[in-house]
Design brief:
Length: 206
């Protein structure tokens, strides 16, 4: 019986097989974890790229001048008017979902109210909102559309004429102010303008 335990080759082979299997299992698990992390990183990178492309392509630009309008030359401005369009290669964006803010040295309106009125009706709304003092809430909307459908989606080739009321009491001569346009997707567009030294019914703002 003693001779049966003098040779342990069989036991050594079994142990080696167990160790080999263990290494294979560990390597497989490790490979799965590494591949999973790689797939997760790749997915996140794709999301970042897609988001960046979407935001970059959903930008708008100001076309032409920005005008400040007033009823009388003795008072401040009542509203500003400008034309917006898509940037080159841009995609459509819903202008009605845009957040508009107004700021000057004395007044801040973090969310100017959107009005569904258009044309002369909107201008009346803007003039009324401009007269509110001191709790200026303001109003803004689409005065008219150019080469556009009846919806509020600003698509390539279309132009929207936007009107934003400003507080007449504080938009006096030489007053700097800022109107921020924040689309639902895309970067903030800041209009930093200054009221001219002399106020006319129609003024080009710089």
């Amino acid at each position: 019986m003693r001779s049966l335990f003098q040779h342990d080759d069989a036991f050594t082979g079994l142990e080696a097989a167990i160790v080999l299997i263990a290494f294979i299992v560990v390597a497989a698990v490790f490979s799965y974890v590494v591949l999973g992390a790689g797939f997760f990183t790749t997915q996140k990178s794709q999301e970042v790229v897609h988001t960046g492309v979407q935001q970059a392509s959903s930008s708008m630009e100001i076309i032409g001048n920005v005008y400040g309008l007033a009823t009388t030359a003795s008072s401040g401005l009542e509203y500003v008017k400008f034309t917006v369009g898509n940037t080159a290669g841009g995609t459509g964006l819903d202008v009605s979902k845009m957040v508009v803010t107004y700021t000057d040295e004395q007044t801040r309106a973090p969310d100017v109210a959107y009005s569904t009125e258009t044309g002369d009706d909107l201008i009346s709304v803007l003039q009324t909102a401009a007269a509110v003092d001191p709790d200026y809430v303001g109003a803004w909307g689409i005065i008219e559309t150019i080469n556009a459908n009846d919806d509020t989606l600003l698509e390539p080739g279309e132009q929207f004429v936007i009107g934003v009321s400003v507080p007449t009491a504080t938009t006096t001569v030489n007053t700097p102010f800022t109107v921020n346009l924040q689309p639902s997707v895309g970067a903030v567009f800041a209009l930093k303008k200054t009221v001219p030294p002399a106020i006319n019914p129609v003024n080009i703002l710089y």
